[in-house]
Amino acid sequence: MMSATRLLVVDDEQDLLELLVRRLKRKGFDVDSAGTAEDALELVKKNEYDIGVYDIRLPGMDGIELLKETKKVQPDIEVLILTGHGTIDTAIEAMKVGAFDYITKPYNLSELELTIGKAAENKALKEKNDSMKKIIAQHNGFNIIGDSANFKEVLEMTRRIADSEVPVLIEGESGTGKELIAKALHYWSCRADEPFVPVNSGALPEHLLESELFGHARGAFTGASQDKKGLVEAAKAGTLFLDELGEMPLALQVKLLRFLETGEFRRVGDVRERHVSVRVVAATNRDMEKEVAEGRFREDLYYRLNVVKLTIPPLRERKGDLPALIEHFIRKTKAPSKRLSSEAFAALEDYDFPGNVRELSHLIERGVLLSKGSMIGAEDLLLPHAGKTKAEAQVRLSPLCSLEEVEKVHIDNALKQMNWNKTKAADVLGISVRNLYRKIDQYGLKE
Questions:
Q1: Do the beta carbons of residue 32 and residue 47 sit within 8 Å?
Q2: In which region does residue 175 sit, left (phi positive, over 0), alpha (psi from -120 to 50) or beta (all else)?
Q3: CA 183 to CA 314: how far, in whole Å?
């Protein structure tokens, strides 16, 4: 549901002000009012407005000064100036410093409503244009490959719930394509022409993550030289994708829960409440019920996000999709005419893909790079288990080994292949660097 256009009306003629506020509220606008510029500025500092309607003649600070001060706090607001015949030249000057339009008194209320509507459309158009290039780029790069029965079930459920407003939780191992399903929820919905904005909860420390998510006010911390919109605002009317949800710090979880329940939030260092309507989709590779039970994730937030759950099967459970995926990844390389040898395909069919589809992509890219002719051989893939010690191979092949043992060997191998470059290893593994450090410590891995 779209939120009502929010107006701030400022006029020192009390009877006229009350009449105007009542009329605009009846028309469905969300209206605040003030009789002086000073009172109006206090409201501007506390609340977010779409449109300002300012009388040019006010006691103390006049309407033009109020316009200038308002734009310092809320640059995107559209302001209409109300003026008498004797001050039209001044009103035109106001347009030069940022007013959307002016209306002369006495004015027709229908004319004012029409101008307010145009200002609201103009504001919405500006916001849409700001994000259009990004939207087009995302949409053009959107592609889902998979015809196996269990993956098709996920896609069918994704289509059914795409137009819903409810939050969705996507679960799956690293590299299974959780962001792709989140994009499907967006681009198969009525929000397809609005922004799809991803947020990686594990990529930044807590204080920076809050600023990235909700934005910050000028002077909120060292280096905050100007107001900055957060990704929540960037996703207005579209989809906010919270990746690596299990990595989100507890303190920030409280603020996210409040936003999900009310649509309201505050930028870091700001006292103003802001409201945004977005569809929230979250993804995790963790066992969230375990995270809740062990106190690392808020139970109320988990159930607020887990209205609908989509579980993506790992690649080892959808091997029937290998041929199409392999062809797709080869086409994306600089040698799209190369083909996989039967031995290489057999080796991939026999492989468990702990890193799932993302790992397959890296393996194909490496195979294309290392192969000398038109054919990619099994030796060109450099599969992780080739060249491991006998003990490591036994861990991989033993039907009785635990998932933790498999994970330990796989992470150790990735670190070795990347010469212990943790950033590159984390990218290959599909986890955050912070998560990788935790795994290294957990398993006692050493360079």
A1: yes
A2: left
A3: 18
Q: Over its length of 447 residues, how does the chain's per-residue pLDDT go in tens digits?
A: 346 789 999 999 999 899 999 999 998 899 999 999 999 999 998 888 999 999 999 999 999 999 999 998 888 899 999 988 667 788 788 888 889 998 888 888 888 999 999 998 888 777 666 555 444 445 545 678 988 999 999 999 999 999 999 999 999 999 999 999 999 999 999 998 899 999 988 877 877 899 999 998 888 888 877 888 899 999 999 999 999 999 999 999 999 999 999 999 999 998 888 999 999 999 999 999 999 999 999 999 999 999 999 999 999 999 999 999 999 999 989 899 999 999 999 999 999 999 999 999 999 998 999 998 899 999 999 887 654 444 444 444 445 566 777 788 888 888 887 888 888 888 778 788 888 888 898 888 887
Output phi, psi for 266, to 5 deg: -125, 140
Distance CA 284, CA 181 (A): 12
H or E element: which one contains 81? Answer: strand 78-83
Output the six-digit token pair for 143.
Answer: 């592609």
CB 256 within 8 A of CB 295: no
DSSP assignment of 191-257, as one string?
TTTS-EEEEETTSS-HHHHHHHHHEE-TTSSTT--S-EE-HHHHTTTSEEEEESGGGS-HHHHHHHH
Q: Write 116-124 long-range contacts (CB < 8 A, 24+).
A: 116/5, 116/7, 116/24, 116/29, 116/51, 116/53, 116/80, 119/50, 119/51, 119/78, 119/80, 120/5, 120/50, 120/51, 120/78, 122/78, 123/50, 123/51, 123/76, 123/77, 123/78
Residue 208 tokens, joined? 């920076």
- Pair of tokens at residue 190: 């009525």
CB 340 within 8 A of CB 376: yes
Separation CA 104–CA 86 (nearest Å): 10
